[in-house]
Each structure stands twice: as C-alpha cells, then as structure tokens.
Design goal:
It is a single chain. By secondary structure, this protein is mainly α. It has 2 domains: 46 residues, no CATH class; 83 residues, no CATH class. Helices cover 76% and strands 0% of the residues.
C-alpha cells in the first residue's frame, strides 16, 4: 500500500484537493490507521491553535514602530549634520594654519619683512599677521564666489536645477 504524501494529506484535510484525488485520499485515510492518526493529529493541532489566544500584532503596532523610528531619526540627522560640518571645518583650519605659516616663512625669506624689524620675534609676528590677512582675504573672496550656490542650497533647491515656474 502506498501512502499519500504529507502535502496530499494536508490538501485533503483543508479541502484543497478536488475530484478523483480527493476521493482516493479520503478512502485511504479511512482504511489506513497511520494516515488516519496523522490527519487526526493535524485536526487536534488545528483546534488547539484555534482555541489559543490571538497573538496578532496590535492594531496600532505599525504606528508605534514608526513613531519610535521617527524619534531616533532627528538625533542621527543632527549627529550626521555635525560631522558633515566638523570635518571640512577642521580641514580648512589645518590648511589655513599651514598656509599662514608657509606664507610667513616666504615673506621673511623674500625679505619683504625684515627679520630684524623690532627684533626677531616681532618680524615673525608681522610675517604671520600679513600671511593671515592674505589667507583671510582669499577666503573672503572664495566665500563670496560661493554665496549664490550656498543661498540656493539653503532654500532646498540645488544650484544646478533650473527654477520651476
């Protein structure tokens, strides 16, 4: 005697099979003790599950999860925003310090600021000051050149995107 497969028995139990196959499996279940016990066990499990508590998700479950995610997102956004501002700022400060020091050495080397001008330390300070003014002026010009782009970006519209009418 060949037994139906477990999937055929499940289809018969849930009335998903049809026609001759349904009749054949039904006749086999009535005659075969092992298959009859298997179907009886499935029925017992099904009734035990049906009588248990309904552990479905709560009605507002998705809303609560989305609210928790929304509460975490601003903190992450602020942290990412701070990092996006800190890294270029630190690079600009380091580059500016290097540029000021390099320019001060060049001004002294070229003889534009004599090292003996009111002592060696005063000459170095004058060189550093002149170099700092030069770097600040270059930064101001660069900032003015970027101002239109920064203004457009702050209004949420990329500078390369044409204006919509």
């Amino acid at each position: 005697m060949t037994h139906p497969s477990p999937s055929a028995l499940m289809e018969w139990h849930f009335e998903e099979s049809s026609g001759a196959e349904r009749e054949a499996v039904g006749a086999h279940v009535q005659q075969c003790r092992a298959c009859g016990e298997w179907v009886a066990e499935v029925r017992a499990l099904e009734s035990a599950l049906a009588s248990g508590p309904d552990d479905g998700p709560p009605e507002d479950g998705l809303d609560r999860v989305l609210a928790r995610v929304a509460a975490v997102e601003p903190a992450r956004a602020r942290r990412a925003e701070w990092v996006r501002a800190a890294v270029p700022s630190a690079a600009a400060l380091a580059g500016g310090a290097w540029a000021v020091r390099f320019a001060a050495e060049r001004l002294t080397t070229l003889g534009l600021v004599p090292a003996s001008f009111a002592g060696h330390l005063a000459g170095d300070l004058l060189s550093l000051s002149l170099a700092a003014v030069g770097v600040a002026a270059a930064g101001a010009i660069f900032t003015l050149a970027l101002a239109p782009v920064l203004i457009l970006e702050s209004h949420g519209r990329p500078s390369w995107q044409p204006r919509r009418s």
